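#lab-general

N.A. 3:47 PM
ok so I finally got the sequence cleaned up, no stray characters, all 176 residues accounted for. can someone with queue access submit it? mine expired

B.Y. 3:52 PM
send it over

N.A. 3:53 PM
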Amino acid sequence: MKVVITGEPGIGKTTVVRRVVERLGHDAEGFWTQEVRDKRSRKRIGFKVVTTEGNEALFASKKFTSKNLVGSYGVNVKRFEEVALPVLEKALRSEGSVAVVDEVGRMELFSKRFRELVEILMGRRDKDAIFTIPVRDVHPLVARLRRLEGAVLIEVDLENRDALAEDIVGLFKGAS
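B.Y. 4:20 PM
back already:
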């Protein structure tokens, strides 16, 4: 079973994924991305990747100098890969777990190996996975995920976001 979640920025895609991970417990392996805000101004200053194993790293920041830019954020691909890729590779090897990929977005897509792992996950019929994608097709891989045969595509909105985690866990439990 593959579940693909989309929705406007800030609508709650990551919150839904984190709630799914909480409910699945050790059966979830992967990562989510999280905004980092300045403690005083509360303005967003970057993004960190956080794994289901508790590892994390700041990988995009307004203070980073990088050839990989998304808006005013420099992306440190190496930091992203050091934290996100090992847990995705582990998820691919694990039987019975759900691979968690939040998100397949412009920042993460700078990583060639990440793109390869997403392709592998997409093609593995025996591997359950949950992906989040932007509302717009920012990359051909995002477009393929949106149209992935057999996947359940869910758009998060204000009305459904609070109930979605339970619904998605039910999809995975029903598929096993």
